[in-house]
Design brief:
The chain is mostly helical. Among the domains are: about 60 residues; about 80 residues, no CATH class. It is built from ten helices and no strands. α9 packs across α10. The longest helix has 21 residues. The radius of gyration is 19 Å and the shape is globular. The mean pLDDT is about 90.
């Protein structure tokens, strides 16, 4: 179980909606810092408040957050145009979000957009580790995020399923969680239980960590 998961009820109570959070000042932030059920990181709590205000500003400038997304590509979240155009438009959107929102890096921005309906896997650590061990990406880090996203789309297209199904399977295989398959966990992976082992560079001793 992650550090965050047990704290989710308290997090939802503390940050119920964007209008409430955007109005928080130092007094409310001080109160949240005193709540033992939260992750008491002042910089991150302050960033949540700042991001709520930034979302409001974006929606105000464009009329809605959806209109903001469509300003990058009129077909988002699916996108219209050829793959190169959609990829370029998505790059511009991600760059703009990272410029305007705190603690939004390449991975967290993709995670956010995937939850919003954009068609790609979330390049989180356990998914990147699995793809790296299989030899499908060159690194487990940011340099290979775009390749990971492309591979996720190819997988979804090959078996004609929504991209979130691919994301869920890869996440389940890689997570060190008793409720998940956790075959490709970081330590003591269950390689003998994995049907991908004949193609796995890690299992065959061709790629270390």
């Amino acid at each position: 179980m992650s550090t965050v998961e047990p704290k989710l009820p308290a997090i939802h109570d503390a940050f119920p909606d964007i209008n409430t959070v955007s109005a928080y000042g130092n007094r409310q932030i001080d109160a949240l810092m005193g709540n033992p059920d939260l992750i008491r990181n002042r910089a991150k709590i302050t960033a949540v408040v700042r991001n709520a205000r930034s979302f409001q500003a974006i929606a105000s400038r464009h009329g809605s957050f959806r209109t903001y997304l469509l300003s990058f590509n009129e077909g988002f979240p699916k996108g219209v145009g050829g793959p190169a155009r959609v990829s370029d438009d998505l790059d511009r959107l991600e760059a703009d979000l990272m410029r305007n929102l705190s603690y939004f890096g390449p991975a967290s921005t993709k995670h956010f957009l995937a939850d919003y309906g954009f068609s790609f896997i979330k390049p989180v650590g356990h998914i990147m580790r699995l793809l790296y061990r299989l030899g499908l990406v060159e690194t487990q880090g940011e340099a290979s995020y775009r390749t990971a996203v492309r591979i996720g789309r190819l997988m979804a297209d090959a078996i004609d399923v929504p991209i979130d199904h691919i994301d869920a399977v890869l996440a389940s295989l890689g997570m060190a969680n008793k409720r998940e398959a956790n075959v490709c966990r970081k330590t003591d992976p269950l390689c003998d239980d994995c049907f991908l082992r004949p193609r796995c560079l890690y299992y065959n001793g061709l790629r270390g960590e």
